[in-house]
Structure formats: C-alpha cells, structure tokens
Design brief:
Elements: E1 7-10, H1 14-25, E2 30-33, H2 37-45, E3 54-55, H3 59-64, E4 71-74, H4 80-89, E5 98-101, H5 107-119, E6 123-130, H6 132-138, E7 141-146, H7 151-161, H8 180-208, H9 213-223, H10 231-241, H11 263-274, H12 279-292, H13 294-301, H14 316-345, H15 351-357, H16 368-378, H17 389-412, H18 417-429, H19 436-447
Parallel strand pairs: 1-2, 1-4, 2-3, 4-5, 5-6
Antiparallel strand pairs: 6-7
Length: about 475
C-alpha cells in the first residue's frame, strides 16, 4: 500500500466516522480501520467512499499507508481496548511517530501510556474531544495534552478541523504535559453533568408549577436569548417541543433513569483527592444514581409522605436566576479543581485559554464562557471565578431569586440538589468564620487530633484535656 495518507483513524463508531469526514473535508487523506471489517466496508460504501478515504482491514495495512512521521488517532472505547490497540501498533511504528487517544480515557491511564510509549520514542497524546456527533463532523472542541514534541506534527491538523469562534480562533490548543488533556476533558464532562442537572431541576420545577411542555419550551427558548444562551438550553427547548406519533409530548414518555459513563464520577473523586469542593458536579452524579433506583423510588413514593409537590408561587425570573447562579458556581468549582490539579501534577494550565476552547464546538458551549475567558485574562491568578468583579455583580443580582427558588422547592418537596448545593457552597465560601471550630474541638475531644487558635499564628497546634483524664498525648499527624 502506498504511504500517502496523512493520518490513520482506528475506530469507526459515530465519533470516529464523523472525524474522518471532517478531516477529509479539510483536505487530509485519511486511512481507516475498524476491528469489525463490515463496519469499514459499510463506511466506504457510503460517505467515506466519496471522501477519498483509504480502507485498511488490518493495522499493518493502516500503518503502511501512512506518510512519515505517522499519525494514528484512536477512537475506541476507553479502557482495555485502548491498550489492546496500542499493543498492536507499537511493533509497527517507529520513534517520532504519534499516537493520539481521542476517547474519554481516565487521565492516570493516559500518563501510564505516555511513560510507556515515551520510552520507545513514540509520541503519545491524550486529546479530549467534545461536541458529539455534530461537533465531530463540523468542528469539535479539542483538548490535547501529553508529549509536547507531538504538537508541531499534529497541531495544524487538529486546529484545522476544530470549531472556530467568530474571529476565526480555533477551539483547540495545546493544554500541557502528562494527562492534562484528558483531565481537562474530564472536568469539562463533569461540568456538563452539572449543567444538565441544573436544567433538569428547572424542568422539574416547571412541571410542579403545572406548565405544559409547549409553555416550558417557550421559556427555555427565551432564556436562550439571554445570559443562559447555550447549546444545552437550546436543545432543551427542542426536546420539549418534540411530540410522539400520537401527538403527545415525547419527553413525558421517556423513562426517568439517567445513564452515565464515568467522567462525572471521576471528576467528583478527583475533587475529593485534591481537596476541592466540586459539590454541584458531585450532586449531579448522585442525582443520576438516585434516578437509576427507579423501582425503589416507585415503592418509596407509595410509603413516604410527599407534601404537595406543587409550586404555585415561583416566578420564572427567579428560576432563571437560580439556573444562572448555580452554573456560575459549578464552573467556578470546576476551574478551582483544574487549578489544584495543575499544582498537584506539575501542569502549567492556562485557565483562560481552557475556557476559550469551550466557547464553540463542545457540549457546554455557552455565551458566558466569553465572560469566564475575560475574567481569567483580567487576572490569570484569580483564586475563584466567583471573586471576579463581573461575576460578583452577576451573583449579587441573582441571589434573591436563587434563595427564593431553593426555599420554595424545599417547602414544596421538589428536589433541587444542584441549586441547594451551589447555594450552600456560596454561603460557605463567603463566610469569614464558619462552624468548623466546633468540628475541630470534637475531633480533639474524642481523638486528641489538636486544633489551631484564632489568637495564635497558623501552623501552631494545641490540645485540651477535655475530660481531665486524657493527658497531654496527641494523635499522630496524618491526612485522612
């Protein structure tokens, strides 16, 4: 096979196929391989065949078709499948070739693969790709990280196929070393979980208010014209307008049990590991877990008192403010986690640049990402997004309505874990003095874990013999 292809793509599920077509649209010659030969043949018999795509029924043929340095993009299921393909590729590649993992791999796996392939001289890149089927076909947001020597080899190609903002800037740039590209994509997906939960809670409250699906669709469409302008708000209006074959709202017939693929959970676990309160994403993950307990919930609904589950006095402007303020908190928490990860893993992450990559192409694309980008350009060392003057003002405006929504929802028995957890974070974060002094006293009382004092310097620890029988011995120091 003549070595004329610019890149090889392994994996022809919906994302892989659409990325191939996107690459072909931009003038790149693409060789493709799928483990199931029939999938490759079907793709070449359809759109792929008219795009000049080269079929390879085995990896040897794929690699032989590539010009040097070879570039191979993996679009296979995260986990063992990625390692299996890498194992097959390694004997076929040479030092200086590039493997790009474009799936949702867990960042520790990316770092392990980076070390392994780096020792062989093969450049490995973990590239988060967001945008779903449409984004892959017409321009996704791409977040590559790993071996920086790969960037001059793949950068022009990835930026060519990426989404563009109005001034033509591509929503793709080098993120950093190690597993940073997949980590940033993981946090992106965690924020996506949060966005979806925030919107779902608005829908739940509107249902409790007795609104029709058509009325709800109009509200979301109106919100999409203001500060909540975003892909997810827009498609929510479309979903609410959709009707089944009998003319009834399709959404009402969809089972209320949400699935998940792990990136939201990974974000929540990482936040615990790094000591960052990414509470809204965690609540969004738990809300999906609760939703999956469908049979148990049906039983509980017949046993546990519900109250009215009706919200007669809620203003839609207040609900909009609760959605907006909760989103601000969620993104603030996500960027705090990215900052903590950069410090922990030695990555140099430009938070403003990351926000700018999410402005187009990706699932969480939204108007207010321009405001986030601007905030970090004003102050690259901003401790938290909620401290930026623009967002201080936005949250101050939204706060009264946000509080009313959380209060009314709680009184009416409508669950709003995202709004409530975001508000709890806001109130905790703005409190110069909280209640953890009591927790420290309790820990010292039962475990001699010691405490610091407000009238002494930080880092100086004290112990009290609370019972008069405990003595002066203190607990050993550990973080658990």
């Amino acid at each position: 096979m003549t070595a004329t292809a610019d890149i090889g793509v392994v994996g022809l599920a919906v994302m892989g196929q659409n990325l191939v077509l996107n690459l072909a649209d931009h003038g790149y010659r693409v060789a493709v391989h799928n483990r199931t030969t029939a999938v490759t043949d079907a793709f070449l018999a359809g759109e792929g065949g008219s795009s000049g795509v080269v079929a390879a029924h085995d990896l040897e043929s794929l690699v032989a078709s590539l010009s040097r340095p070879r570039r191979v993009l993996l679009m296979v299921r995260a986990g063992a499948a990625v390692d299996a393909v890498i194992d097959q590729l390694v004997p076929l590649l040479d030092p200086g070739d590039v493997i790009i993992d474009g799936g949702n791999s867990h960042f520790p796996d990316t770092e392990r693969r980076l070390d392994r392939l780096g020792a062989l001289g093969i450049h490995f890149v973990g590239a988060g790709i967001s945008g779903g089927e449409e984004g892959a076909r017409h321009g996704p947001s791409i977040m590559p990280g790993g071996d920086e020597r790969a960037w001059p080899i793949i950068g022009g190609m990835l930026q060519a196929i990426a989404a563009k903002v109005e001034d033509g800037t591509p929503c793709c740039d080098w993120i950093g070393g190690g597993g940073s590209g997949h980590y940033v994509k993981m946090v992106h997906n965690g924020i996506e979980y949060g966005d979806m939960q925030v919107i779902a809670e608005a829908y739940g409250l509107m249902v409790a208010m007795g609104m029709s699906h058509a009325e709800m669709a109009e509200v979301f469409a109106a919100w999409d014209e203001g500060v909540l302008d975003s892909f997810l708000i827009s498609i929510t209006a479309d979903i609410l307008r959709a009707v089944d074959d009998d003319g009834e709202p399709l959404l009402a017939k969809i089972l209320d049990a949400a699935g998940q693929k792990g990136t939201g959970k990974w974000t929540a676990v990482s936040s615990l590991d790094l000591g960052m309160p990414v509470t809204l994403v965690a609540e969004a993950v738990y809300a999906r877990i609760v939703s999956a307990l469908k049979e148990a919930r049906v039983v509980a609904s017949e046993v546990l008192p519900q109250g009215s589950v009706h919200v007669p006095h809620l203003a839609l402007d207040d609900l909009r403010d609760a959605v907006y303020a909760s989103k601000i908190v969620s993104y603030a928490q996500g960027f705090m986690l990215l900052d903590a990860a950069a410090a922990e893993y030695g990555w140099s992450l430009d938070l403003g640049r990351i926000a700018s990559l999410w402005r187009e192409g990706c699932i969480i694309r939204a108007r207010f990402l321009d405001d986030i980008t601007a905030a970090y350009r004003r102050d690259p060392d901003l401790g938290s997004l909620v401290l930026d003057p623009f967002f201080v003002g936005a949250m101050a405006t939204a706060l009264p309505g946000w509080r009313r929504v959380v209060s009314e929802a709680a009184l009416s028995g409508v669950p709003t874990p995202a709004y409530a957890s975001a508000l709890a974070f806001y109130d905790g974060y703005r409190s110069a003095r909280g209640t953890a002094n009591l927790i420290q006293a309790q820990r010292d009382y039962f475990g001699a874990h010691t405490y610091e004092r407000v009238d002494r310097a930080r880092g100086e620890f004290f112990h009290t013999d609370w019972t008069g029988t405990g003595g002066t011995t203190t607990s050993g120091t550990y973080d658990a």
